[in-house]
Amino acid sequence: MRTVLGIDLGTQNVKVVFYDFEQCETVAVEHAPLDLYQGDNGAAEQQAHWWTNALRESLLKVGDSVRDSVVAIGVSGQQHGFVPVDASGEVQAPVKLWCDTSTGAESDSIMADFGGKDACIDKVGNPILAGYTASKVRWFRDRHPGQYAQMDSIMLPHDYLNYYLTGEHCMEAGDASGTGFFSIRDRAWSSEMLAAIDPGRDLRECLPEVRTDNAAIGSLRDSVAERLGLPRGVPVATGGGDNMMGAIGTGNVSLGTVTMSLGTSGTVYAYSDRPVIDPKGNIAAFCSSTGGWLPLLCTMNCTVSTELMRTLVNADIASFERQVSTAGRGAEGLLTIPFFNGERTPNLPNAKGCILGLDTRNSRPENLLRSAVEGATFALRFGIDELADLGIRTEQIVLTGGGANSPTWRQIVADVCEAPVVMLRQEEGAAFGAALQALAMFENAGADLPALVLDHLERDAERSAEPRPSAVSFYQDTYSRYQQAVGKVAELYG
Questions:
Q1: Helices 303-312 and 365-389 meet at what angle, rounded to 10?
Q2: Could you tell me where in the chain the CATH 3.30.420.40 domains are found?
C-alpha cells in the first residue's frame, strides 16, 4: 500500500487524511482539537506549537503500517493568519487568526494611507479587511515594536507547518491572496501596499518566494519524521490555503461548479479562468492553486451560529438534526442574523447577532435551531448572488464542511440557493485536496492537476439534494426579509 497524506490545519482542529491512490480509497482519517483564545475586543489567537502538537496527536492515532505507507505530503491551512518568526526560526508571538477582528482600526488606517477602499481594490484586487494579514502586521508593529524589529519572516499558518516539516519558507499564490498585500492580477507582492503598511521598513525582506506550481518545496526533516512517526525524506508539496485546497478536494477546477463550505466560517467560491475583481469588495479576488483564480465570499459565522444555538437549547447532535427537520420552513417567523462574531461580508466587524420575530407562540428550541441554519444559509446565498453579478454561473453546489453532514441542512441549501447540491464520498475536502496536490507532485511534478482531481473524485448520489419548487418560492420571500434585516443591522453597527 502507498498513500499520500493530506494535513488540514483548521481553526478548531488539525485533520489528517491518508489516501491510497492506487486503490482510490481513504484508509484513515483522524483529528486532534485545538484551543482558541478569544478576547472581548475581537481577538482570536492560537499558539503555533499547539498546531504541531495536535498534528502529532492526530498522526499517532493512526496505525504504524498506514503511517509507513506515506510517499508524499500536502498541507492545507486556515488563511489570513499572521505568524511572525525571528531569524532563529522561533515564533515571536501568539498567532492572530483569520477570525480576529481586533485589528479593524489598523485595516481602516492602511486603506486610508493607500488612498481608500477603491484604490486598494484597483491596485491589489481587494480591500484590506480586519481578518487579512496586512492589518495584523501593522498591529504587531505598533503594539510590539521590539519584537517587530527582530521579525525575520512573515508566515501564514500553512507556511508555518511547511516550515516545521521541511525547514523551507515559501508561500503559495492562492494563500498569499489573503494577505492583502499580494497583487491578484500580477501574482506578485505589491510593493505599494507593503509600503503603506510600514513606510519605514522594506517588508519584502520578510517575505518568501511565491510558488505558482505544485512541485515539492522540500523533504520531511529527519527529526520531525521521527517525532511524527512518518518515513524520513518524504517530499512535501507546496500546499495552500484551506479554500484553495478545498477547491481541489471538491473538484472545483472548472467553470460552473461552486463549492460551499459549512464550517466554522461559511465560504462560497468558484473557479475562474480570469481575474475576477469585485468593485464593491464583497467577493474576495483570490488566486486558485490550479493556475486560475478563485473568487470567494467568506462569512465569519456559519456553524458558529448553529453551535451557539445548540448550546443555548442544550441539544446534542442527534437532537439538533431531529429538531431542525421537524421545524417548519421559516421557523414560524423567526429570522436569525448570524453575526455573532461580527461579520466580514458584509464588512461589519462590530456587528452582533440578532434573532428577530420572537413571540410567545414560536419561542421553541426547534425554531431557534432551524432559524440559525436558515440564517447561516441566507448569508451564503448572498455570495451566490454576488458571484452571479460578476458573471460566475452556478450550475451545481458541491457541499463540504461539518454542516454538510446534516441532511436537512443540505436540502435547505438546495432550496435557498435554487441549485442542485452535490456531495462527494471523499470527506474533509481541504485535507483531501492537499493529499491530491501531493499526489500530483509525486506522480508528475504537478502536471495536469485538474485532470487528476476529477479522476479521483466520486459523487455520493444518496446524500445529494435537488431544489424543490415550492420551497424555492418560499425562501425567495424569506431571503428578501433577511436582506432587509441585514440593512437595519448595518445601520446599528456599521
A1: 170
A2: 3-242, 251-423+464-494
Report the topology of domain 3-242: Nucleotidyltransferase; domain 5 (3.30.420)
242 is an active site residue? yes
CATH number attached to the domain at 251-423+464-494: 3.30.420.40
Judged by phi (left if over 0) then psi (alpha if -120 to 50, else beta), residue 331 lies in left
* Catalytic-labelled residue, pool 8, 159, 175, 242: 242
Which residues lie closer than 8 Å to 408 by C-beta, 6 or more apart? 321, 324, 325, 373
Question: Does residue 446 carry a pLDDT above 80?
Answer: no
Average confidence (pLDDT) over 178-203: 96
Residue 338: asked if its preceding bond is cis (omega within 30°), the reply is no
Model pLDDT, residue 274: 93
Pick from 317, 180, 190, 168: nearest CA to 236:
168
Rg value, the chain, Cα: 22
Q: What is the pLDDT of residues 384-416, one digit of tens each?
A: 999 999 999 999 999 988 899 999 999 999 999
- β-strand partners of 153: 85
What are the Cα distances from residue 27, in Å, to 305, 429, 453?
32, 15, 18
User: Picking from 237-241, 378-382, 422-426, which range would have the lowest pLDDT averaged per residue?
Assistant: 422-426
Q: Is the pLDDT of residue 214 over 80?
A: no
In sequence order, what are the residues at sequence separation of 6 or more whose Cβ sits closer than 8 angstroms to the Cβ of residue 134?
A: 107, 110, 128, 179, 180, 181, 193, 197
Query: Which residue type sits at 143?
Result: R
Instruction: Indicate the pTM of the whole model.
Output: 0.89
d(CA 435, CA 486): 39
Residues forming beta bridges with residue 18, ordered by sequence position: 5, 28
Q: What is the pLDDT of residues 117-173, one digit of tens each?
A: 999 999 999 999 888 999 999 999 999 999 999 999 999 999 999 999 999 999 999
Whether the CB-CB separation of 306 and 373 falls below 8 Å is answered with: yes
pLDDT tens digits for range 227-256: 999 999 999 999 999 999 999 999 998 888
Contact between 34 and 50 (Cβ < 8 Å): yes
Residue 368: name the closest of 334, 319, 318, 341 by CA. Answer: 334
Angle between helices 365-389 and 469-493 (to 10 degrees): 90
